[in-house]
Amino acid sequence: MTLQELKQELTAELERNILPYWTKYTIDRTNGGFYGRISNDNVVDITANKGSILNARILWTFSAAFNALKAPDLLKLASRAYEYVKDHFIDKTYGGVYWMVDHTGKPLDTRKQIYALAFTIYGLSEYYKASGNDESLNIALDIYRVIEEKAFDPGYKGYFEAYQRNWSLIEDQRLSDKDLNVEKTMNTHLHVLEAYSNLYDIWKDAGLRNKIEHLIEVFLNHIVNNETGHFNMFMETDWKVVSGKLSYGHDVEGAWLLQEATEKIGNPALLARVKETALKMTDAALLGIDPLGGLYADYIPDMGNETDREWWTMAEGVVGCLNAFEISHDPKYLDAAFGFWDFLKKYQIDRRYGEWFYRVDEHAKPILTYDKVGPWKCPYHNARMCLEVMRRVKD
After folding, report:
1. Taking Cα atoms as reference points, which of 159, 165, 212 lies closest to residue 183?
2. Contacting residues for 92 by C-beta, under 8 A, at least 6 apart
3. How far apart are CA 180 and CA 27, in angstroms?
4. CA angle (299 as vertex; 294, 301 as ends), nearest 5
5. What is the distance, to the nearest Å, from the Cα of residue 21 to the centroid of all Cα atoms in its chain?
6. 3-state class of 246 per DSSP?
């Protein structure tokens, strides 16, 4: 395979499978916005709750797709997502974003998860690029300011995880059942950085630039294990690491997101450090390649690698390895990127019902009980993979 062939195949995947699926199956014409849950075989749960992560990622995806492809229908869908997020997820009393609303759009879980606020900034910023809608920028800035006011740790730096609706302390800070109940996590910091980086594209504020630089330093000093190249996943307030769990998908995703953010702020010395770190992180992630060429999701101490594979890890693997190839020109990274795409084509893409399987087992057979659309099954990882390759590979 060549890079040009990869670009052609991923352009076709985006235009003929991913975007058509989300356009055809997910629009909720009864209650507005998009459905909260669709089974693997495309049975819609019309009363499913609607998650902030799903909706922010739909907003980002249609906005980013419009920015690349310029198809007017994509902007209409981005606007639909924007209006729904604005009307139903933004907390107009206390600021921030609700975690979950019911199928009619009424607030259901009003906790303030900083991860969700970050993704909403990410989506709103991309929508502003697509639409020029000043209101979307202003909402993004409101969320940015409330994160800085409520969640920033002035002592040890970084950001805390979660709060109750009124920003009082919350006992259970976990993002999901897979997470530990700790004060700081890699995952939240990674997506705050990603969001701030996208916001900086449209709002060149010195204070925001400083926050991005601060976050990059936090990663280099506390979140990346400089001996192994893996991310530390869970930490106490003072950055003491409390788990040996690893996430190969986050390692390879984080490598390119860290570099992207650093490139935007114009600090050559910091960028040199980050590029070196990005290669080390990508190498660490590639330790999770399985015998079929996929990427294991996690490594769990005393248990070993989780042998199932999730759709998003290979999507991020393609981008992260292409990024590492651009830094180093080492063909091993290109081979890995091609290998991940080959795995996705063979095992992860659903040729019958469309889109991608959420999870496949150790034999690469799809686990059909997992949904096609849900609070965590969104179009962002696989659409972004296509868009990144389309952007990076020149004709």
Report:
1. 159
2. none
3. 34
4. 160
5. 19
6. strand
CA–CA gap between residue 274 and residue 35 (Å, rounded): 39
Phi, psi at 367, each rounded to 5°: -95, 100
**Residue in the structure block whose two tokens are 């409330």:** 146
Q: Tokens 């609070």 — which residue? A: 375
Residues contacting residue 350 through CB under 8 Å, at least 6 positions apart: 40, 356, 357, 366, 372
**Rg of the Cα atoms in the chain:** 20
pLDDT of residue 87: 99
Burial group, residue 221, by CB count within 10 angstroms (0-12, 13-18, 19+): exposed
pLDDT tens-digit series, residues 73-94: 999 999 999 999 999 999 999 9
Could you tell me whether strands 309-310 and 359-360 are parallel, antiparallel, or unpaired per DSSP bridges? antiparallel
Residue 244 and residue 106: Cα distance in Å, rounded?
39
Q: At residue 349, what are phi and psi to the nearest 5 degrees?
A: -80, 130
Q: 31 — phi, psi (to 5°)?
A: -110, 0
Write down how long the chain is. 395
* pTM, 2 dp: 0.98
Residue 153 tokens read as 């740790």
d(C-alpha 369, C-alpha 353), whole Å: 14
Three-state SS for 99? Answer: coil
Q: How far is CA 271 from CA 71, 110, 263, in A?
A: 35, 38, 6
CB 314 within 8 A of CB 344: yes
Measured distance between the N- and C-terminal CA atoms of the chain, rounded to whole angstroms: 15
Q: Where are the alpha helices (DSSP H) in 178-267?
A: 186-202, 206-218, 248-265
Domain boundaries along the sequence of the chain: 3-392
In this prediction, residue 302 carries a pLDDT of 86
Split the chain (395 residues) into runs of 10 and give each run's mean pLDDT.
98 99 99 99 99 99 99 99 99 99 99 99 99 99 99 98 97 92 98 99 99 99 98 98 96 99 98 99 98 94 92 99 99 98 99 98 97 98 99 95
Distance in angstroms (rounded) separating the CA atoms of residues 272 and 262:
9
Helices 114-131 and 186-202: crossing angle, nearest 10°? 20
Could you please state the CATH topology (level 3) that the domain comprising 3-392 is classified under: Glycosyltransferase (1.50.10)
d(CA 113, CA 173): 8
Contact criterion met (CB below 8 Å) for 251 and 281: yes
